[in-house]
Amino acid sequence: MLLRSSCILKVGVHIKADLTRLFHDCGFSQSRDQPFVGAVELGVLAKQRGVVERANVGLADLTAAILHHHLPKEQAIRVSTEWDNLDLTSRQIEYAALDVFAASSIYDALCTLPTGGSVVETTLGGTQVKLMSRDNHTPVAYGVIAPDQPTRFDGVNVTKTRVVINVTGIKIGAYLVCADLLKSKKKIPLSSLAVGLPFQLLCYRRDLQICPPEEYHRMQTSIPSTPLPTAITVPHNEEHQSHNTLTHTSDPAADEESWMENIDYDPEGEQELGDSVLDTEGGEKAKALDKLSRLPPPGSPIRSRVLGDILHLMAMFKISMHHGLQRPFARQLRDAILIPDPHDKAMLSRFLEEKMDTFEQAVLRRSDWVWRRMKRYVPPPEVLFPCVKLIFQVFGPLKDAVTGQPLFNDASWEKAQNILENIRLGHYSDPPGIALYMSIGKDANGLNLYKCLRGTNQVEGGVHQHIARWFGPYNASPRFAVNLLRDYCLIHNLKVCV
Fold it and tell me: How confident is the model at residue 463 (pLDDT cuts 50, 70, 90)?
């Protein structure tokens, strides 16, 4: 009666599967016996309340996200065959009791949180909402319902099925706004309307959902917003060129971009995210990235003494230059890894405003000009990891509109996992206190010019390839490799000191 009663809730993670297995283990048949009911999936509840992004999440992760405690999951106990014994050990009893206590505590905590819902005509102004994709599965942008609802917005009637919102964050800038909601009657990317945040947008009520406070706050602090304007007016005159005396034939700042040349915005040669079709197999591999190891808690500012090269990270992906999403993916990955220095960005933004332009537009059309006038940094793992993972999950499974090929093949998905693991370990984040840019003067407009020291081109031919030839004949262990490097340094120093 207990297991067959819908009035008695069975709360847990993957609890439906547990009840189904228990039903069959008891020898019951679905055709003649009443099933076990009353299952409450904690993952589903957590997703509905915006605490997690996916419902398929483990109990330990839910405990960390909701209760802010660590739930031990010792492998030797969890998969032990001793669970079949009638008498359990004290460690097994403690393990089971902690699971039950955690599940109960999580359920109690979730019941106190509001859940999202549909936006109706009576929904109040100021309510936090999220704009959903056409399939109603993916959040596109976040904002609040405008307190004052006009009868017309930018020449378009605001009917009972429409509502004006104040957009405060964009998650998918390539989302196409419906033509019926625009004065031009033409679909355009959402980001092209975002001159700055916040901005107002007319939406259909059916495309909006009430956003739980936890999700709204989390997304406002994590969305890497990269507007994608459709027009640009960066002048091609002498004011935007540096002095000839500051021109370098080999600029490491430009070398950072060499793997993805010609990725500036091209409306004729690019494919919009909103027009892309998801590859089913790729979608499953994208979800599998959520199973990667959790980030370690922030500790020492220096996470690793071994640093990976950003250029090589990006070059690991072998993507066809003819794929419609090659450019958008390259830009998003670049901008998630290399974050503009706030001071330099502010100076450039002020200069471009005087030229009737914006920073975002300049990055799209003349990125090489921008990067030579700006320092950039690679954030710590806890910031970098979720941003890069999200880009892999969004772009990787999408198909080319012409060939039907997904952006990521099997090798790319494997490389994505390796990259995320190295990001998690801190191998790509900039070490604190080490200058990676050198000032080389100012251009004709008084803007700073920088030489980036992050790339490896300066050591590639003289040192790197030479060392690689040394290592080639050997299957060197770490200890042997260290001694080979020491021997190389000694011989090099002896030669240069002669």
Answer: low
Q: Do the domain assignments include residue 40?
A: yes
Average confidence (pLDDT) over 406-427: 90
The Cα–Cα gap between 428 and 339 comes to: 13
Are the CB atoms for 51 and 216 separated by under 8 Å? no
Strands (E), 97-204: 128-132, 139-145, 152-153, 156-157, 162-170, 176-177, 188-189, 199-204
State the pLDDT at residue 202.
94
Please check whether residues 319 and 404 belong to one and the same domain. yes
The residue behind tokens 């207990």 is 2
- Number of DSSP helices (H) and strands (E) in the chain, helices first: 18, 15
The reported pLDDT for the residue numbered 258 is 39
Look at residues 79, 111, 143 and tell me which one is the last residue of a structural domain. Answer: 111
Q: Helices 381-395 and 326-337 sit at what angle, rounded to 10 degrees?
A: 170
List Cβ neighbours of 130 (8 Å cut-off, separation of 6 or more): 116, 139, 140, 141, 142, 143, 208, 209, 211, 215, 216, 219
For 274-278, 299-303, 346-350, which range has the lowest pLDDT when averaged over its residues?
A: 299-303
Do 447 and 461 sit in the same domain of this protein? no
Question: In terms of DSSP bridges, do strands 139-145 and 176-177 run parallel, antiparallel, or are they unpaired?
Answer: unpaired
> Do residue 318 and residue 343 come from a single domain?
yes
Q: How many CB atoms lie within 10 A of CB 385?
A: 22
**Has residue 476 got a pLDDT over 60?**
yes
User: What confidence tens digit (pLDDT) does each residue in 340-381 have?
Assistant: 999 999 999 999 988 888 888 888 888 889 999 999 989 888
Three-state DSSP class for residue 67: helix
DSSP 8-class letter at 108: H
Question: Is there a single domain that holds both residue 150 and residue 87?
Answer: no
Question: What distances in angstroms separate CA 433 from CA 11, 354, 436, one per listed residue?
Answer: 49, 34, 9
Integer Cα distance of 253 and 240 in angstroms: 17
Average pLDDT rounded to a whole number, residues 110-125: 79
Helix (H) or strand (E) holding 360: helix 359-365
> Does any domain span residue 4?
no
Residues 181 and 135 in one domain: yes
Residue 313 has a pLDDT of 82
- Vertex 67, ends 65 and 72: CA angle to 5°? 85
Structural domain count, the chain: 4
Comparing C-alpha atoms, which of 229, 282, 266, 260 is closest to residue 395?
Answer: 282
Using CB atoms within 10 A of its CB, is residue 122 exposed (0-12), middle (13-18) or buried (19+)? exposed
In a domain, 391, yes or no: yes
* Same domain, yes or no: 171 and 49: no
Residue 102: domain span: 10-111
pLDDT of residue 96: 92
Q: Is residue 119 part of a domain?
A: no
Q: Are residues 69 and 197 in the same domain?
A: no
